[in-house]
Amino acid sequence: MFRQACYNHLKKMSVTYINTTPKTPVYHKPSKTIKPAKDILILIPGNPGLVDFYISYLDFIHEKFPNFEILCIGHAGFLKSKSTKTYNLEFQIDHKYDILKQMILSKNEQGIVPNFYFLHHSMGSFVYQRALSKLYKDGSLKDGFNVKFSGFITPTITDIAGSSSGQKLTTLMKWNIPIIPIALWLSFIVGFLPDFVIRTLIKYQLVTSKIGNKDIDISSYENSIEGVYKIVQSETVINQALTMAQEEMKHIAFDIDVNDWYFKNSDKLGIKNWLFFAKTDHWVNDETRDFLIDRYHDDKVTVCEICNDEENPISHSFCVTQSEQFAKITIDRIKTLCELDLD
User: Fold this and answer.
1) Burial of 8 (0-12, 13-18, 19+ CB in 10 A)
2) Which end of the chain has fewer surrounding CB within 10 Å, N or C?
3) What domains, with CATH codes, occur in the chain?
């Protein structure tokens, strides 16, 4: 299905591409201290799966873990294109499996057994669990990699349709509301505006309207502005995001078999898990969150927490305007659970 991933040829740029079919956008940063790196931080996005939203977040983390190699793998289909083809959840799972397999084999050829530190956001956690299962079942990768840490960030790994936004989307689907054509029509209308106007409106919506009309350092928001711009300017990305969102309503249901397999085997596999939930999340129902915590939390292997910041609580879409704030939390949890010394 895929051409061999050109992992060794990633360039040191903001967003680059792996030569898969379709082409995969990634954000890659080599280790600042050890080359080739053994410790690798992998991030799997949510939906929409644009790498741009996570650049600032990963840069903040890399400052504290300079020995890590960083790789954020964008979802298939989230590039501006003339193609109308979309890629479903099964494809996204195989897509991550293939890229990670090529990375493992590349490291193994260099005499390295990589240690993976995973972060995955929203439905990215659903994709991660299933891609990892395929990696463990692949006999050619036996003893070829380790997973040291896995961060589930506002994870939608069961009953996404039961969330407040999920209920709204499901209702629209039942009523056969043409969600995608409406979104594409709005994108077409916005396309008549000059680029600088579109970017100014995005900046206002993301930053000024939330923080106030005062002088602020918005450097960490520039990547988010670029991400939103790519969405509103691309019919391909809009179609992919909404098509996949509708599929999520049907397939991320009460399937606890994969969750049970993953969390009940994590200790044996050597994985330290961290599940972070927003206090109020429009994509994760409170009952679903509490069910996952009650079923899987323990203090040694799978640590679950609900955001307790009353002043500036972390939201489901943390990567848009809360990158630095959440990076500090993430750094602390990786350091604590994996007993890493940053001093």
Assistant:
1) exposed
2) C
3) 1-338 (3.40.50.1820)
